[in-house]
Amino acid sequence: MARIAVVAGDGIGPEVVAQARKVLDAVLPDVQATEYDLGAARWHRTGEVLPDSVLTELAGHDAILLGAVGDPTVPPGVLERGLLLKLRFAFDQYVNLRPSRLWPGVAGPLGNVKPGEVDLVVVREGTEGLYAGAGGSLHRDTPAEVATEESLNTRHGVERVIRDAFARASRRERRKVTLVHKTNVLTHAGSLWARTFDAVAAEHPDIETEYQHVDAAAMFLVTQPQRYDVVVTDNLFGDILTDIAAAVTGGIGLAASGCINPEGAYPSMFEPVHGSAPDIAGQGIADPVAAVLSAALLLEQLGHSESAARVNAAVAAELASRVPGVTLRTEEVGDRLAAHAVA
Amino acid sequence: MARIAVVAGDGIGPEVVAQARKVLDAVLPDVQATEYDLGAARWHRTGEVLPDSVLTELAGHDAILLGAVGDPTVPPGVLERGLLLKLRFAFDQYVNLRPSRLWPGVAGPLGNVKPGEVDLVVVREGTEGLYAGAGGSLHRDTPAEVATEESLNTRHGVERVIRDAFARASRRERRKVTLVHKTNVLTHAGSLWARTFDAVAAEHPDIETEYQHVDAAAMFLVTQPQRYDVVVTDNLFGDILTDIAAAVTGGIGLAASGCINPEGAYPSMFEPVHGSAPDIAGQGIADPVAAVLSAALLLEQLGHSESAARVNAAVAAELASRVPGVTLRTEEVGDRLAAHAVA
Ligand SMILES: CC(C)[C@H](C(=O)O)[C@@H](O)C(=O)O
Ligand SMILES: CC(C)[C@H](C(=O)O)[C@@H](O)C(=O)O
């Protein structure tokens, strides 16, 4: 039995999560889902972001499926720091996994890249760096104001995510890992990342490695996304690079992510990269593919590789059959995907 | 008379700088150029990066024209921190100006973007943020190692670069400024940037404004680069975004930059965004356009707007006339540009 906590959230969150659940129910016989009401709506109603009791309950699940939280009227940081990052940190989800594929049938924005040619995964560190919340300010709202943000990096945190990246690469066909950082400017953290990378690489002589500065990687993701297999990088760089990777493979409507605690000491969390998209919420036209692909990552993490593969195959068929210009209906896509995944 | 310090540097640096000087000599009658030997070659030979005496001499010039410095055998940070960033900080070059245009004749990588449609300028902060060099490490090379990098942001530093961005927008046709930051995670620095932006915006009711998170901006630079006019952002975000902007407008072979001290208290510095490209150095095939466009920014900064416009027109003609597949010769391109700029 898989005990899944479902945080549908705001905007299109509930619409796409409903489809992901349809697909999960189709491929796994014994999903026990519990819904948690978290996000902008709850915050507006009650002022609560993530009560401790809810955090404790969430910890008792095998995985969390999240739609999207937020709306433009919530002040920046409230839900990000109080809910999303809180969960990533509390559940030690140090592997933020973001695969990008240019699926056959999807028209990407790059003229010279053909479907099937891009198949990369970014292993983004999820519990350190500039996301640590180590910042502050003095003399606020005066001409003397100073504000700081500190990037905290530990050998412990860096090594474990790099090890995860190499482990993933060794299970993939191309067996290549690219480290992305900015060692020429961020010399202290950069050196820690580079030395740790080299040490782990030495244990994997069969895996090809390369290093790129983050600015160069941002450029190459646009000009030659085909060159990447596994990319490992820090929390903030990973945030930016994965949106570029999503953009060149057809947009965040298709981008899945997993916030993973590989040891399973805590539940991992799976969510589409897209946000709550208030502009199209309630119209039934959001693309549920990113949520469904996130559910596939969830299945993979819980050991149901075969079910995950069937969901991915359903998505591949769905995308290959899309006719440009035809508006999709969220529900119908979910129905098709669920049907295909069990066929 | 314009006193220009020339740092040709390493690799293709001298090759492209020679063309930029040709063009400068053609449009300005009285350029007095002094060459400074700085970069990887000098470091290998003497161990010196930037002697104090050279820094003092550079300060006596009206502007600095730089080619590219570095080679793969110099440890990361030596030339970046010791030379490039040292100059940006010592000369208070707080406006790092990086225009991107998709020039007619240039085939960008984006299928749905036509030449002429992209014309943006990133105003990247140049003297603060994560580039401040405020980091350190403890327990190096042990399992307990921790490394930090601190982003330092002052109202002083943030306000002056935002003011510069609005001033530039008010001289452009579309009159729009986009602030890019990550206010939802970097809440302290983000709040300083956002409040300062709003305060300056209130003084410019005629200028359209928008805010985007850096991950969203990275994505939109790929999917809709046409939407940007002036983008203002911090030092690290600007580093990454300008490489994306370069990628979508034909590559860093065409990307110019100026490290500007707008008040003229210190010399400003102009350099192509590309590096020393050791792989093609010495072959006479480097594209000098980025260096020549950097020279145009230099002319603009020194008040020679008309000459700058002529150089830009020469570049436009050059790019429009290029035949795909024909290898360009650095010297010949320089000759053509110089001839066209005076015609
Ligand atoms: C919402 C925000 C905190 C988050 C992040 O920056 O990690 C988002 O951009 C993402 O990529 O998941
Ligand atoms: C070489 C490096 C220090 C520099 C930077 O990061 O600013 C470069 O990438 C640039 O963009 O000018």
UniProtKB/TrEMBL annotation, chains A, B:
Keyword NAD: yes
Keywords: Manganese, Metal-binding, NAD, Oxidoreductase
SMART domains named among the record's database cross-references: Iso_dh
Gene3D superfamilies reported in the protein's UniProt record: Isopropylmalate Dehydrogenase (3.40.718.10)
Database matches in SUPFAM superfamilies: Isocitrate/Isopropylmalate dehydrogenase-like
Cofactor(s) required, per the database record: Mn(2+); Mg(2+)
InterPro entries given in the database record: ICDH/IPMDH, IsoCit/isopropylmalate_DH_CS, IsoPropMal-DH-like_dom
Domain Isopropylmalate dehydrogenase-like: 3-337
PROSITE patterns (alphabetical): IDH_IMDH
UniProt cross-references to NCBIfam families, sorted A to Z: PRK03437.1
PANTHER family according to UniProt: D-MALATE DEHYDROGENASE [DECARBOXYLATING]
Record-given protein name: 3-isopropylmalate dehydrogenase
Organism for this UniProt entry: Micromonospora noduli
Lineage: Bacteria, Bacillati, Actinomycetota, Actinomycetes, Micromonosporales
